[in-house]
Amino acid sequence: MRYKYLFIFLLTIHSFCGSVPVQPQSANYSGKLKGKAMQLKLANGFIGGSEIHIGNVTYYANSGRPEANNTMLFQSKYLANGDYFVLNNMQQSYNPMPATISGKYFKSRRGVAVKFLLDK
Length: 120
Prior knowledge:
single chain; signal; mainly beta; 8-stranded antiparallel beta barrel; 13% helix
């Protein structure tokens, strides 16, 4: 009887030892918007963890996965600003990382094309 509980305990411990979480790879992209430097930190493997930085404002992915048309919305936590990014050709994971990522920055319903280049 005692060995039965020991066996169950060892099976339980063994199953937890094999499940180590995998950290997504990230790649850094840079670009300019109206003379200001912007950075895209692309989380490969979990695209919902990606962020865009302009100065001290951070724009976060609006969802954990791209939309059906492969676009992804990025908003800051200050929703009163009303500005946001929509990036094109987004995928959950890339192999290899794309050289450029393009999209649009929207403010007051007007869009400006943006382009992020992969940092080497």
